[in-house]
Every structure is written in C-alpha cells, then in structure tokens.
Amino acid sequence: MIEHSLFRRMPGRMLLMLLMISLTCLLFPGLGGRDRAEAGAANRLAVAPTAPTAPIAPAAIPAAESWTFLPPDWMTGAGHVFSWNSALRKEATEAGHLVAIDEASALAALQAEKSKIDVFAVGAQLSGNATFAIPFPVAKAAYERSGADGALLLASSSGSIMLPLSLLADNDALEGAGDVLASIQTTGEEIDRVPALADAQGLRHVDDTPVAEFRLVVRTNGEEREISDFGRTFVQSTIALGRPVFDMASTAEFLAGQRDNGVPRFGFAPTRFFKDSDGTLHAIVNRSGNGVYVLASRKAAFRDLIAHWSRPAVDRLAETGIVNGRTPECFGPDAPITRSEFVAMLVRGLGLQDKTGSGNYSDVAEGNWFASDVRIAAAYGLVSGYGGKFSPQVGLNRQELAVLLANALRLAKPGAVWNAATLDGYSKEDQPAGWAAPSMSVVLGEELFGGLLAGRLEPRGIVTRGEAAVSLELLLRKLGFIYS
Q1: 281-287: strand order across its sheet
Q2: Tell me, what's the pLDDT at 223?
Q3: DSSP 8-state secondary structure symbol assigned to residue 94
Q4: CA distance 355 to 231
Q5: Collapsed DSSP state (helix, strand, coil) of residue 352
Q6: Is the distance from CB of 432 to CB of 442 less than 8 angstroms?
Q7: Would you give the DSSP letter of residue 397?
Q8: If both were cysteines, with which of 130, 279, 320, 464 could 252 make a disulfide (CB 3.0 to 4.6 Å apart)?
Q9: Burial of 278 (0-12, 13-18, 19+ CB in 10 A)
Q10: Longest alpha-carbon distance in the chain
Q11: Helices marked H in 321-422
Q12: At what angle do helices 465-479 and 339-350 cross, to 10 degrees?
C-alpha cells in the first residue's frame, strides 16, 4: 500500500479523479433501444461496426524475445500463470505496434503444459499504443482448459487488461470469430481531446499523467465489430501513471461517459492504486465496458456537514461525483433519502455502463432525471419494483437498502463468500421481512450499515441521506473500488 507521506497535498483540497470517455459515444451519440432482459444477460456483448485494419500476415515464431516480459504477480493475482510469450510476434503499425499470438505455437505450447492454468499471460515491453490479436480458437482452447474462472492477461509498458475467458469464449456473439483485438492506447486525436473536455467541465487534468484507452474488437473475415458492453462482467485494466506527486488520501476517480443528449457526462470509475518496486504508480480500474481514462482534479464541500458524523464519507463520495447535494452548498444529511436517489448513487458508485431500453416501471418516465439510473440498475439485477412500479419518490427503508447493498456485492464479486450475521438476537419488531432477511444478514456480517443504534435494526425505518452515504462508502471500500 502506498504511504501518504510520499505525496504532497494539493492546495484547496483538490482531489484526483479518473475519467472515462466512450469514444464511440462521442462520435455516435445516439443510443438504440434494448429491453431489460437482454440488457441484463450476464454474458451478452454489444457490438458495433468499426473500420477494418490490415490482416495479420503469417510469420515464423521465435522463442520469447527480449521485448517480452512476464507480468508481475500484482497483475496476475494468485494461481498458476502460463506464459504465451514464446508464441508472440510484433510488427510496427502506423498507430503503434500489433502484437499477435500465433495460433499454432500457442496451441502446441498449451498441449505440452499439463498443469492446471488459472491465468494465461503475455507481456510486451512496448510503450505507446499496442494492440493484441488473440485468435478465437486460442481463446476457446484456453477457456476449455481453465473453465469459467480462467483469464487472459495482456500487458504492455503502458498498461494491461485482464480478460475473463468466459467473456471471449463462452459467448454466442463471438462464435466463429477470427481474432479478438484488445488495444491499449495512450496517443491519438480523440485521446488528446480528453483533458480539454475535463477542463471545460471544471476538472483539471493532473500534469504528467497519461490518458489511456482500452478497447475490444472482434475481427471476422476482415470485418471488425467493437465489443462495447461486457454485460455483467467487470474487467480489470491497469494504467502505468509514472511517478506523479499527489495526495493519495484525497484521491477520487472519475470517468466520462455520454448519456445526456450527446453531452459528455463525467462520473466515477472504480479504481485503486498500486506502487511497484521501482516506484511506478499504477491505477487499477474495474469496468464493464470499453473506455478512455484520465486523471483529473476537483473539489467539493457542503456547509451543513461541518459537525456531522457522516461528513468524511459524504465528502469522499461528493469529491468523486458519486453523490450530489440538495443544493450546491447543502447536502441534507439528516433528510430522508428516496429510492431513486440511492439507486442513482449506487449506479454511479459501481461505475456501471449505460443500458438502453425501458425499466418496465409504470411510474418511471423516460424524462425523469433518475430514469437512466433506474434502467441501469434493473439491467444489472440490482433493483426490482413492487407490482410493476418502482416508487421512485418513496423513502428508502433499511431492509431495502440491505437488499441493494447485498445485490451490489454479488454483482461486483460473483462467487465470493460473504460473512453473514445471525438475526436471532434481535427483537420481533427488528426482524426484517423474509425476502430481506438473507441480505440483512450479509450486510450486518460485512458491517456495511451506517447510523445503526446499538441493538436495533429498524428494518422498516427510513434511511437518511447521511446514513446512505456512509453505507455506500463502506461498500465501495469493501469491494476495493475506492482508495482506502
């Protein structure tokens, strides 16, 4: 973990934020319709045509060369790592470098390896733009060897992307594909525009930190389609930031997407930071779609939080753009929070991709300010309504909050085992409804509730805005989605 003393504080509580801009959205602002069931499919990918690139010419494959490297443990994680570097070849392109995995060499190396493999890894010591080409049969073979939990790590000197093999190989949308292209880009006309876009909306690009784009494309018979939506799958990417000087304790990560009538909308990107042995700082981002990321700064403060117990959490979330005040200067920490307000906070906090289509709630109109967030939350399985209604203006009670928090845990960390507390010690009045009891046990076990009185649950009590902010910050810390 990075020591705060290594970084000097910026003046005026300026905070650092990570921004994402969807280049495709910037160029093509229209969003098409898709119903809720399709948007919520776990492994359904959205694809869009892109301009084709030149096909990869076959070439002889040497043994692993000096320009390759084995990604470090902090990138690969635990488990057995299998290197495909010996099957790599590179060629210079107008935009940077193309790094291709040779199909025959990769399959032969896999056949010779008898151990269980958790992560397939390739590393290219190339700065600037790098595009990795993975033949679909190679991804399929890796998936068949490792199963649904396997991953393919693609790393360059600029960053890395960890692709779940199930995203590539266990998906009808990619069946019969030729190559999957994963690009890590730090230069280009659209990328160069990002700092100015941040400046135009009151955000400042942090000096000497790169802007980086991560993009997945499927190529079949010379035709390319962008994978713009990873369904409910979170993909981890890293960005090498160099050795910037800033206050890690006051870091907030921002992304910029486009959902509001073609105007770029800035929001949070779940991020943590890691400092490696040579002093290079890396941002580790978890997202469910492509994006361009930039480090920028911002500050926020509310006058009515000066002596309030929820101030640290509210300040942290406000400075990331996850929560907003009732007015620019007042947060209203003791006011009740509505269902729509918390769902909007949760969607921003998880950095979820936009989902098109209606939420199928009779009381949520497309023109409502919360319509997009409710639609996204429904598509990701975070919310359900009551008899076809969402009740957006009704106060959120504690057992509903517990269900939302538990659903977020399951979405972000599928398959994880969470602590569950017993409810037996609480009075009859403090027992939640049967549909909320399992979630209440998990949220209590993981200590995600803020503002509870000792010995009381009050499952039907309305949650305040301050309590909701504290619970959300605890959730994001638990998931590793904000710097802790």
Answers
A1: 81-83, 119-124, 151-156, 159-164, 235-242, 281-287, 271-275
A2: 84
A3: S
A4: 9
A5: coil
A6: no
A7: B
A8: 320
A9: exposed
A10: 73
A11: 339-350, 371-379, 398-412
A12: 20
Residue 294: what are its φ and ψ, rounded to 5°?
-145, 140
Q: Which residue has the tokens 């200067």?
A: 329
Token pair of 43 as six digits: 């492994």
Helix (H, G, I), strand (E, B) or coil at 472: helix
**Mutual angle of helices 465-479 and 311-320, in 10-degree steps:** 70
Run of H or E including 473:
helix 465-479
Calpha distance 270→236 (Å, rounded): 10
69-92 pLDDT, tens per residue?
Answer: 999 999 998 899 999 999 999 999
Cβ count near 360 (within 10 Å): 14
CA–CA separation, 435 vs 456, rounded Å?
19
- Residues 155-181 pLDDT 10s: 999 999 999 998 887 666 666 678 889
Query: In this structure, which amino acid lies at residue 343?
Result: V
d(CA 123, CA 103) in angstroms, rounded, equals 17
| Closest C-alpha to 266, from 333, 320, 210, 316 | 320
Q: Distance between CA 293 and CA 186 in Å, rounded?
A: 10
CB 423 within 8 A of CB 398: no
Report which residue type is found at 465.
R
